[in-house]
Give the backbone structure.
Amino acid sequence: MTSQERPLKKTRRGAAGGGAHGTRSGAVPVNRWLMLALRVLIAVALVVSAVIHFQLAPGFQQAYSSGVGGGTMFRLQGVVAILAGLYVLVRGTPRSYLVAGLVALASLAAVLVYRYIQIPTIGPIPSMYEPVWYPSKTLTAVAEAIAVALAFAGYALSRKRRSESKRRSESSVS
């Protein structure tokens, strides 16, 4: 038998697509793909929230033609959501997941608080009480809740992954 005719040996690494550094075969690529998918989904959810806030901003500013106004608050939230989405998408560090989660949580909290509690004007921040649900408000709340859940899951997974990686590197040195 020539080398071309011999059947290929199936090794532990080669059998299922190859693992790296002695880990279970396929474990590293799955984690990388999972983490990438989480980052993309978080960024998409934050962009959905941002776009809806940008669309709603002009209507909320009309009530407060001078001063900060609801429209300005909505625009600021949209910018911060986009920046947090880009940060988690580009970096994928525990800190980026935490930032994205906190931005989404703050936005979701504002939607829920201003839906159910009538908070008066506080300095330049207007009272934005709105005791109704409508499709775009519901969609932004759902997108923000998804972003919160995924960001905190990504935070936990990235910390776990980082500690496992650190442990592996320490054990290979000793």
In short: Residues 10-23, 25-30 have pLDDT under 50 and may be disordered. The longest helix spans residues 135-173. The CA atoms of residues 50 and 77 lie 7 Å apart.
